[in-house]
Design brief:
Elements: E1 5-6, H1 16-24, H2 44-61, E2 67-72, H3 75-87, E3 95-100, H4 103-112, E4 117-123, E5 128-130, E6 133-135, E7 156-159, E8 161-162, E9 167-168, E10 185-188, E11 205-209, E12 220-225, H5 242-247, H6 257-272, H7 275-296, E13 300-301, E14 313-318, H8 324-333, E15 336-337, E16 348-351, H9 358-375
Helix pairs in contact: 1-6, 2-6, 3-4, 7-9
The structure holds pyridoxal-5'-phosphate.
Keywords: Amino-acid biosynthesis, Aminotransferase, Cytoplasm, Pyridoxal phosphate, Pyridoxine biosynthesis, Serine biosynthesis, Transferase
Subunit structure: Homodimer.
Cofactor: pyridoxal 5'-phosphate
């Protein structure tokens, strides 16, 4: 059977080369006589795997030396609690502000309320008129000039890419310009991590569950500036205290060794592709192809405000949603998998992560053209 095109939102497509390398190394990693799954995390083999993964990631994203790269567990969902437990105590005020732009940022906001005085800095939860056009809730992004950031907030949280709604925001402001120079920006980058560069002069912390764009489920990447750690609340579990995890080189407890190994192979694959700038160019090409096709069609519809359309997750609708089941069945028969939209949004969603090549997007567009000819 030919390998299908996988548009899953997560866990999602991994590069075939990575899977094949892992298969070759499954029972005997580099002559060690062991699978990576069977090794002591403190032995020389796994230490090397961890060190290379950290170094490759630092190189790929040009992570400055004053940022720690941590491998943790619990996914981005656990970070919704781990972030406030680590950061909210840093200046004594016990406050944090959240920008709400869709499902994931709302979950982060809700969880944080257990740990302090949490306020909404801005929200796209209402319909809006932008440049004369109407946009529904969670299909646009509040402009930074409208954010209300408390100058004594311990941090400001936002979700860089709303995986469900398909809203991506990367024009991160200089917090001094918003009257809050001491408030670091914390970004949930789960679903666009490694799809584009990150400006580390604009963020204090970025976190990402690996299973969208960086590897398998089970490992969460945390990149945090060193002055932000060491302030964990007393209730913070020791294993989730960034200071402990950093001091132990992500081995305060047994790390998810196999997931780190596979993520490390993805990092090496990305370097072979030419790095993040090269993959970003491909991601732009893929997203432009699909969005321009959707914009030209009267059969398919998109809802997200143009400037914040996600390159990674493209929700779209058939004008006649009675055709949804037939669309999905025919797509699957053509090897175009996991296109069903999230239940809270409906319709379809094509996730175009790094491991989905341009040919996959072309295959999707030609199927969509054919389907339109058949039913339009
Ligand atoms: C998937 C996702 C999460 C949740 O990740 P888990 O690994 O399931 O905890 C959080 N934020 C964003 C943006 C996501 O895409």
């Amino acid at each position: 059977m030919a390998r299908p095109w996988n548009f899953s939102a997560g866990p999602s497509a991994l590069p075939l080369e990575v899977l094949e390398q892992a298969a070759r190394e499954m029972t005997n990693w580099h002559g060690s006589g062991m699978s990576v799954m069977e090794m002591s995390h403190r032995g020389k083999h796994f230490t090397q795997i961890r060190d290379e993964a950290v170094a490759d990631l630092r190189e790929l994203l040009s992570v400055p030396e004053n940022f720690h790269i941590l491998f943790m567990q619990g996914g981005a969902t656990a970070e919704n609690a781990i972030v406030p437990m680590n950061l909210i105590g840093r200046n004594g005020a016990g406050k944090a502000d959240y920008v709400l732009s869709g499902s994931w940022s709302n979950k982060s906001y809700k969880e944080a309320q257990r740990y302090g005085d949490i306020a909404v800095a801005a929200s796209s939860g209402a319909a809006a008129e932008i440049d004369g056009a109407q946009y529904g809730p969670w299909t646009w992004f509040p402009a930074p000039e409208t954010w209300r950031v408390r100058s004594d907030a311990a941090y400001l949280h936002l979700c860089g890419n709303e995986t469900i709604g398909g809203v991506e925001f990367t024009d991160w402001p200089d917090m001094a310009g918003l009257g809050a120079p001491d408030v670091p920006l914390v970004v949930d980058a789960s679903s666009h991590f490694l799809s584009r560069p990150i400006d580390f002069t604009r963020v204090g912390m970025v976190y990402a569950g690996a299973q969208k764009n960086a590897g398998p489920a089970g490992v969460t990447v945390v990149i945090v500036r060193d002055d932000l750690i060491g302030h964990a609340l007393p209730i913070c579990p020791s294993a989730f205290d960034y200071a402990n995890v950093a001091a132990a080189g992500s081995m305060f407890n047994t790390p998810p060794t196999y997931a780190i190994y596979i993520a490390g192979l993805v990092f090496k694959w990305l370097k072979r592709q030419g790095g993040v700038a090269a993959i970003e160019a491909q991601n732009i090409r893929k997203a432009e192809a699909l969005y321009s096709f959707l914009d030209a069609s009267n059969f398919y519809i998109t809802a997200v405000h143009g400037p914040v359309r996600s390159r990674m997750n493209v929700p779209f609708f058939l004008k006649d949603d009675a055709l949804n089941a037939e669309f999905l069945a025919q797509a699957e028969a053509r090897g175009l998998m996991q296109l069903k939209g999230h239940k809270s949004v409906g319709g379809m969603r094509a996730s175009l992560y790094n491991a989905v090549p341009f040919e996959g997007v072309q295959a999707l567009i030609s199927f969509m053209q054919e389907f339109e000819r058949q039913y339009g």
